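anyone else get weird line breaks when pasting these?? whatever heres mine. first is seq + tokens for prot A
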Amino acid sequence: MTAGRDMSGVRTILVTGAAGGLGHRLCRILSARGYQVYGLVRPEDDCRRLELPKEQVYVGYVQDYSCVARAMDGIDVVVHCAALLPDSSDAPPAAFHQVNVDGTASVVRAAIAHQTKYFFAMSTISVVDHVTQTIGPRELLQYVSATDDAYLSSKVAAERLLFSVRPGYSGELMILRLAYVYGPGNFAVWRRPFQFLEAGKLRLINNGSALLPLIHADDIGRFIVRSLTQRPSRGYDGIHILASPQVPTLRMVFDFVADALGLAHAGSVPLWAAHLGAAVASAVPRRFRKGRLEMLTPARVQQFSRGYDLSAVLDRSVLDDLHMTDYRDGFREMLADYVTSERTGKAFVR
């Protein structure tokens, strides 16, 4: 290995969703550390960001077991990133289940059959309620109750599935619950707020005082490398909460973004008005919710008025050892990429 001793004898890694925002960054980090990285991408994916030789890229869908099994041949480690993300708002609920649940079942089934040594599954901190209560290790399996959020429901179902099959897996199965992922190419949860900020339409609830936990995509890669080169942390029953110990507020993040892009700062809306707006928007049929109405839901009002408290479940000894990205450096890098790769017409930067 080029950096650090690989205690697990790991050489080959398969990254599903390798062309995605997180997937391509993990491929880059893992390749740079000397691993032989393979990627699984969909036929329709844009692979220009993926820095892998063509012979190390498999094309197919995670729901297709035969395709996944071919890609899994000779693999030591699986990094399962493939997912239908929350920004796919036009996708029907069945599509989220098909990709995020059936796809996870296909990938872990193949990992069990091929006896891979490690399985890293990407999940989200939102599968439990970190907003209205302080979650400790004992509450990490107290999943949120029924929700009309198809993405969130699918991620809860995917975690339950992984726990159900774990007894039959001979390797180390680790669920990485991610905070808000950012970094170059990782625009899924940021694209719409950036567009509203540019248009002067972004409003922060209660002046953006809520805490916003973040995780840079590259720091996720560094956590995986650490787990492979040192004795892996057991986490909490195999669950690892990945978020930077540096937790800015919404106002701090979006003021920094506005200043970096030469834009006016976001406005503010009182909590009562946000609740009222969400109630009205919820009464409108989904197909008619456009623009800010699409984002204005009771769940989001709760999230972005109260923030997330992860303090009781962050493994500070591990995270501090990673020397995680300062959010200002990370956003500066992401915004430079966003301007050049995402925008057409009027540029953000003046």
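and prot B, same format (seq, then tokens)
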Amino acid sequence: MLSKPKRITALAAVLLLSACTTPVATQNSGIETPSSWNALQNSAVFTPSTEVDQQWWMHFRDRVLDQLIAEAIANSRTLAIARARVEESRANRAVTRAALFPDVEAVGTASRGNQGFLTQNRTINLAEGDLQATWELDLFGRNQARTAEATAILQSAEAASQAVRVELLAEVARNYFDLRNYEQQIGLTRSNLDLQQKTYDLIRAQFQAGDASDFDVQRAGAQVSTTAALIPALQASYDAALNRLNILLGYPPGTRDTLLKTPEVTAPIDSAILIAAPAAVLQSRPDIRAAERQLAASISEKKAVTAELFPDISLTALFGVQGGTGFGGAPWNVAASLVQPVLNFGRIESQIDAADARQKQNFLNYQQTVLQALENVEDALSNYGRETVRYSSLATSVAQNRRATDLAQQQYTGGFTSLLDLLVAQRDLLAAESSQAESDANLRKDLVAIYTAAGGGWHDVSDASGRVAEIDWYP
């Protein structure tokens, strides 16, 4: 059993080793973080929040969307690939970390032969078992820096996997709202087609009675044909969205069509939208954390390459047993070696320069990622705010066009207006209803963009422990 001073020394050595292999601390991007979003100024639509919503899809109050999100998280091949990359990085870190400890090997040999005068010209049996150990002391921290680099790469891979999840959930939601939009567009077009068909039938009856011209018949028929031609294109877009959703969920096309084709009443969008402050967004977005950890990895890489300038000191030891015909032994050996680079024609210096260039690239990429995140949120907030105004105008337009169509129908029946006025009113109503449905879908997709631009959805807040499952940050 170790004495107290030896135990303290051993503990200190372990703590020192852990400290040396700890990845570089979080780096500052150097980008000034705004105190608030520009789009929030003088806006009653958005409400500031201190946290990023990690279950943003629940605000849509759509059970089908909730089911799609759950299945995508469980079955998506894209997310599974990202998780496999994390496992690869974890294994690579374990390989790198192993260089910090002694390499111990057991070697056994057995032979039978005549070695001439060495064995007095006799045939003998010889058996030997050895335990060999080699340990690179790493006094100048090269392997420690490599381990810190590998750990930072693992952290970056974990954050990148979380970024894949954020984008996956956003794509599921966007395609789902596109599906519902195409579904509604098809319904509106068919409804208007029925109305136009009735008008066409009425004109034909009047033509047969001599109260309308063939020109009126052809004009009404042309509008019916034009409206009917819209349906196949809408149906093709609907089918494409349906297939895309199946693939996003990890299924062949057609597998979840029954769920997706189930009619679902679209709930109104929340009147107040919670949006986290810029500082919270930059802290939450996984792509920013991935870029920052790449920078940390490059800092450790440069330290490791710089350590190549210093000696490589190793200890070796051998302990074994040996037995043969007429004799036995216990061979052992302890040795130390030192290798100092003397002349390498600038190889190490060039590696340091390359590592320094990569560090600069990663720093600039980190800054660019932060700037893009700020741009993403501002754009999403602006788009949603502008679309809200547009939707309100379109709602008024639909009500006015619906009233105009009713009046045109009544006046045409009474003989007070022309067929052209009626057809124009019906066409305008279809266009207004279609635009309103599209605007509603855009509002929902813009809201998705707001939540995902803020970094929402990268972890499951339903974890019973109340915390995010994280990687092992230290070796």
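btw re prot B: Residues 4-19, 463-475 have pLDDT under 50 and may be disordered. The two ends are 26 Å apart (CA to CA).
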